[in-house]
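Example A, followed by Example B.
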Amino acid sequence: MVESDKIEFYRHHLDDKTIKAVEKVLRSLFLASGENVEEFENNFANFLKVPYTVGLNTCTQALMLALQGLGIKKKSEVITTPLTFLSTASSIIMAGAKPVFADVDPETGLLDPVSVESEINENTSAIVVVHLYGTMADMEQYQNLAQKYNLKLIEDAAHCVEGSRDNIQPGQLSDAACFSFYTTKNITCGEGGAIATKNKNLYKWLLMARNHGMNTAPSARYKEYKHWDMEILGYNAKMTNIQASMLISQFPGMETRLARRIEIARNYDSVVDSNPAIGRPQVPLECKSAYHLYTIWAKNGNRERFLTYFREKGIGVTVNYRCLSRLSYFNDHHYIKPQECPIADDIGDNTLSIPMYPGLQDQEIRRICDVLKTIR
């Protein structure tokens, strides 16, 4: 195999429309947070069918701000999954709370509500639910759980911009949903994040919190100067007009790109399901997955060998995700140890991700499927 034959693990889909949108901003007066960000926020809120969205610099910052803005108390406990990217848990720690880990469902890899309920005590303040791989968790069930125990409910929807479950989208049943626009995501601006919420007070707080605690937006100060005030202690967590212009350009075509992801997943599914050496997380029938990732589960402890095999065949692969119990920081600081969440440990020890993006060509999909057929 020559390098040019390699199938990359991911490729972004940005086109001339995005380049022209960015160029227009670069030729304008204001590059930082301004009118483009407001346009993105309006578009995104309409897409999610929620009253408010707030553009931010990262999803990690979004998670931390959501926790702080909802009044999560210092040293209180926030229940989440250990089968996730590390920022789900690190944002809880940075917000001053303690992550408590519940186990996952063995069929889907999603956080198990029964395990969550078993971890709730008088110190619990919130639940952070992760829509893993792009498949949305059962938010009606989590909404009922949050109401039963008077807890805040936050969605880590970093993988799930286009996902839904029973026609419910992220942000519709929770206090806040947090999104990522990192370079590998279904819509991207390189780095970026957002929060969707129905809570007007949280929305107003977020507008200040992302802007150093100031009560006037940067672009407004340049149109006509008026004295501003710092009302709260805040951060510099704003999305820029450059980032927003990239995202706005990608809204048209989202459904077409998602349809292609679903088509690719169907091709993979049929091959994976016929190979006894591998499995995959199930997508519930009521879910429309965003298919941000397509993961397979190696059986009989063969993950490392399979990773090597894919690479030898010129196919980019990675691991999403090892259980957080395998990461030194969470061990060393006594947040989680191996086998505290045995199902998450097992999935994390055996998972690997294969290419999943709308730009995959048919012949590339066939090559990947050929490897999926022969891997043993």
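Example B, a separate protein, is given below in the same form.
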Amino acid sequence: MKGYDSYKESGIDGIGSIPKGWHRTKLKNLVCQRITDGPHETPEWTDNGVPFISAEAIRINVIDLAYKRGYISEEQHAIYSKKSKVQKGDILFCKSGSTTGKSAYVDIEEEFGIWSPLAIIRASKEKADGRFLFSFIQSSVFKYQVETNWTFGTQPNIGMGALENLWIAFPESMQEQTQIAKYLDYKTQQIDDLIAKKEQLIKLLEEERTALINELVTGKKVWDGKGFSKPTKTKDSGIDWLGEIPEDWEVKKLKRVFKFSTGLSITRENLSNSGVPCINYGEIHSKYGFEVNPEKDYLKCVNEGYLESSTKSLLKKGDFVFADTSEDIEGCGNFSHVTGEAQIFAGYHTVIAQPLVQINARFFAYIFTSQPFRNQVRSSVKGIKVFSVTQSILKNTTVWMPTLENQRRISETIKLKEGRIKSAVDKMVSEIDLLKEYKKSLISEVVTGKVDVRNEVIPEEN
């Protein structure tokens, strides 16, 4: 796409040149009322009434009231509205917290209130097209100004005075502003639709992976000499939720297959960059869920003195280590299994499971990933803000075991198919990242006049 015929320096950091007929001004000069934020106090919550939102309700540039904090009364909303009342066509801007700089265009009629992390920007209809102003606020050049003007406490924050004094570049013609806004609405919607399709495909692939694991590790399909098919001979497992299993499979309590112990009684202060690698519950929940290889994976270390004093917490290849706490129910049962030969300790907030009998460790890793196993753990844990996964809970879960050879065959089949799924997912994630970068670049190029879209034809439905 071509640019404009001639340019001039904008004098704005991060923007560079703008078309010769464009202007620059501060944000406060393009709004019809002073930029205001929501109340700083905690409201009195009610069971119903007016939805009350904060930063998390901004979802991909729009407001989603499903993410409201709660409800407030009509009376309290009326009081708060004297300072900050949202209208359709407003721009909501996150001015504090981890999402500082995010924004959304209000395109809904429903009444709602906002909390203090959000500010209302209302474009002056005589000076700025609201959608154009929103597009500029979304651009990386505006976000650059936000980042160079925010302050840090525990999280970033940009004050109202700093926000209203940020620079906007714009064409004087309202018709041109509207054309730019319509063009960007059309093009970014195309990009968002592509991203949504790829995200849906990723979701379907993840569901395919989960179904594959659940199907093979519970014996719903078995090896028939050529491939996997429904078993011809089955027996009652004796467990309602498991149902029929292949005739040659066994059902056991986990304590009959593994011996259990605890990780090191240490804190973060005991960790350093040298010594013996140590996996703690944090790494299990984040980096190294499912498997860890101390020969390849980066882990903090403990002093080598623990090799003499705490051998019971030392792991070897094929051992499992579970996180003994989780902040959400989905994380209950998270684990890692050791795939390398090097020494590694289980650290704080961990439960160790070491095989008592010969097993295929990867097969059991897939069992511990499966929904039937996770459901057992989740139904047994207790907690409100933090859930505790005890040795007793793990010991008394039920597992099902084919022969060692079938364990190997199942784990190798899942690993192969899982690898193909992962490759497809990784490819789509990369494509999504490229689309997001293209979208960011497109918005910034168009709202600063680096490309000329005045004569671009936009389909009528947009």
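On Example B: The CA atoms of residues 291 and 336 lie 4 Å apart.
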